[in-house]
Specification:
With 626 residues, this protein is of the alpha/beta class. Among the domains are: 115 residues, no CATH class; 137 residues, Ribonuclease Inhibitor (Leucine-rich repeat, LRR (right-handed beta-alpha superhelix), Alpha-Beta Horseshoe). The chain is 32% helix and 20% strand. The chain has 19 helices and 23 strands. The strands form two sheets. It has a 20-stranded parallel beta sheet, covered by helices on one side. Strands 1-2-3 form a three-stranded antiparallel beta sheet, with helices on one face. Helix 15 packs parallel to helix 16. The chain is globular. It starts with a strand and ends with a strand. The N terminus is likely disordered.
């Protein structure tokens, strides 16, 4: 069945037109608009029906062909194929290929075939047809876990795009494609050298163990380079070879590199990389991930001192267990020397950082010329960090008055108590531009409800806040009433995420206080409530929550998680269904009722069937486990 099927050229005069094919075989959504002509296509399969009803499958396939043939004005195509739609994997490629010559206006093509079985002949013909897309500016192909793909695909893609002079962005993802080797990367590099306007490249080869030779010899004009080699067999020699090639790029502005879990990389490889990067006065954005590279020591953090022009920095050295305060001292001195630092993201979970290391970093926040707007720090399981470190950090943070977003994780830092949380709340109140707070204190068992209540009181003055996320665990008798009173003062909130794990004692009354506290949030778009471990919520609580949520029909995302609530029954689930069925803007719904034994599978299925009819839904997860 096709709804609102307008296929002639006059359709483009309408601001937005939706084509929908909804059957038990697959689901398709096509969107067009006058400005950017967007096509989005999602395919989902019912395998049994496909196998047992050939005539039905053929009829709906003809409908899909009609839609694909009407795309000569389309500028933007996104296609995601469910891995279970085996019959349609090649079908989509064949029909796209047959229409490429008509798509002279196409500027962006996105295909996601993750975990799909792709016929080699169809893939070859598809790649060959790419040459007809003369206006193409962005190409994104995702073939993660497509186990039949080998090096031949790089020859095919290379031949297909080598003459696309308008192409500026290429993203290729081949994670867990185990037949890929260095040979394919050499061919791909040669192809990129022919694309004179190519500015951004993203290549992902996570878990491809035969990929070791990183080839970028011909990427001289690229400005944005993103490479990911998680769990690959990259070593110091490979990293040095890559660094030597990196020096040949003339105008690099941004580089994202992921070598996490490459166990053979040590300080020697890091020195080669930083030595190459120091030549770029144009480099502004640096993102490095060396998590779980256990041979890296404090020496690696000393090499950064020569990168003086950076504005955005993201460093992940989680699980590098030899990193200590000595290295953090060097890193802090480097960061203090950056004049235009705007975005700082540091992850040093499971390292030896203590209060002393945190103080070195805190000094970056109090310098007079501070331009920092976004701050993310993650020190999970840095067990020597305590209130003393947080008090000094909070004192320094008060001087970083340009901060807009703060994301802090101190989970499993067991020595942090109420005073540390309270001081952070006080510091937030001194930041006039702060719009987003994300705090994570999972498994910090010395934090009590008193600390949470005092922290909540500090929030009342941050009236410009738009997003708040609090994650904690094992705080007994959590007082959501106090938190709700503070949230009432934050009229501009667009996102509320509250995650209280463990035996928090949250009950129906808390849901009542919380939902009533959000009644005046006219801009609320995202609501996430996770009370995993609290078993005192009943149908009554869900009813009150849903009644108050009805006033937030503008919600785009909602996630609710409950655990072992034996007094949640089908009645409560129906409250949720009747509430959300009218939320026409929802695109992401996640509902978890784990071990809620009074909820039936039939009721859960009815909830799923109702919500999947929402016009904008993209992600839908409903989980019920006995």
């Amino acid at each position: 069945m096709i709804k609102n099927a307008v296929t002639d050229d006059k359709a483009l005069k309408i601001k937005r037109i939706r084509y929908e094919i909804k059957t038990n075989v697959y689901w398709l959504r096509l969107q067009r608009c006058k400005k950017d002509s967007l096509l989005k296509l999602n395919l989902k399969s019912n395998t049994a029906l496909l196998e047992n009803n050939e005539s039905f499958k053929k009829r709906e396939s003809l409908n899909l062909i009609k839609v694909l043939k009407s795309l000569k004005h389309t500028k933007d195509i996104e296609i995601k194929v469910d891995p279970f739609v085996k019959e349609n994997s090649g079908f989509i490629l064949r029909n796209l290929r047959s229409n490429f010559q008509k798509m002279r206006l196409l500027q962006r093509l996105f295909l996601d075939y993750t975990r799909s079985e792709i016929p080699r002949t169809d893939l070859k013909q598809f790649c060959k047809g790419l040459k007809y897309l003369s206006s193409l500016k962005s190409l994104e192909l995702i073939f993660d876990s497509c186990y039949e793909i080998n090096d031949q695909v790089f020859y095919q893609i290379g031949n297909g795009i080598s003459h696309l002079n308008e192409l500026k962005t290429v993203k290729l993802s081949f994670s867990s494609c185990f037949r890929i080797s260095n040979k394919g990367l050499v061919q791909l590099d040669k192809c990129f050298g022919k694309l004179k306007n190519l500015k951004q490249i993203s290549l992902i080869f996570d878990r491809c163990r035969d990929v070791t030779d990183i080839r970028i010899k011909h990427l001289r004009a690229v400005e944005d380079l993103r490479l990911s080699f998680f769990e690959c067999a990259i070593n110091n020699e490979n990293l040095k070879s890559f660094s030597d090639q990196l020096k040949e790029i003339t105008s690099l502005k941004s580089i994202h590199l992921d070598f996490s879990a490459c166990e053979d990389i040590s300080d020697e490889g890091m020195r080669s990389l930083i030595s190459a990067l120091r030549h770029y006065k144009s480099l502004r954005d640096l993102r490095l991930n060396f998590a779980n590279c256990k041979e890296i020591t404090d020496a690696s953090l000393k090499y950064f001192k020569e990168l003086v022009f950076l504005e955005n920095i993201s460093l992940d050295f989680s699980y590098c267990e030899d990193l200590s305060d000595e290295g953090f001292c060097s890193l802090g001195q480097f960061l203090e020397g950056l004049i235009d630092l705007r975005d700082l993201n540091l992850c040093f979970a499971y390292t030896q950082i203590t209060n002393e290391g945190l103080e070195y970093l805190s000094n970056v926040l109090k310098k007079p010329s501070n331009s920092l707007t976004n701050l993310t720090l993650k020190f999970r399981s840095c067990k020597e960090i305590d209130d003393e470190g947080l008090v000094y950090f909070s004192k320094c943070m008060k001087r970083a008055t340009l901060l807009k977003s703060v994301n802090l994780c101190f989970s499993s830092c067991n020595r942090i108590e109420d005073i540390g949380l309270e001081e952070l709340g006080d510091a937030f109140g001194h930041l006039p531009n702060l719009t987003a707070i994300h705090l994570t204190f999972l498994a910090c068992r010395e934090i009590t409800n008193i600390g949470l209540r005092n922290f909540s009181d500090k929030l009342k003055t941050i009236t410009q806040l738009e997003s708040i996320c609090i994650e904690s665990e094992d705080i007994e008798d959590v007082d959501l009433g106090s938190l709700s009173q503070s949230l009432k003062c934050l009229k501009l909130l667009k996102e509320v995420s509250l995650i209280f794990m463990g035996d928090s004692g949250i009950n129906d009354n808390d849901l009542c206080y919380l939902s009533e506290g959000m009644l005046d949030f006219e801009s609320l778009q995202i609501l996430i409530l996770n009370f995993w471990g609290s078993d005192q919520i009943t149908d009554k609580g869900l009813k009150i929550l849903c009644e108050n949520l009805r006033k937030h029909s503008q919600l785009s995302t909602i996630a609710l998680s409950f655990y072992r609530c034996d007094e949640i029954t089908d009645t409560g689930i129906n409250y949720v269904k009747d509430c959300l069925r009218n939320f026409v803007n929802l695109n992401d719904v996640r509902l978890v009722f784990y071990e809620c034994t009074q909820v039936s599978e039939t009721c859960a299925n009815e909830l799923h069937q109702t919500l999947q009819k929402l016009p904008l839904i993209q992600e839908l997860q409903i989980s019920i486990q006995d």
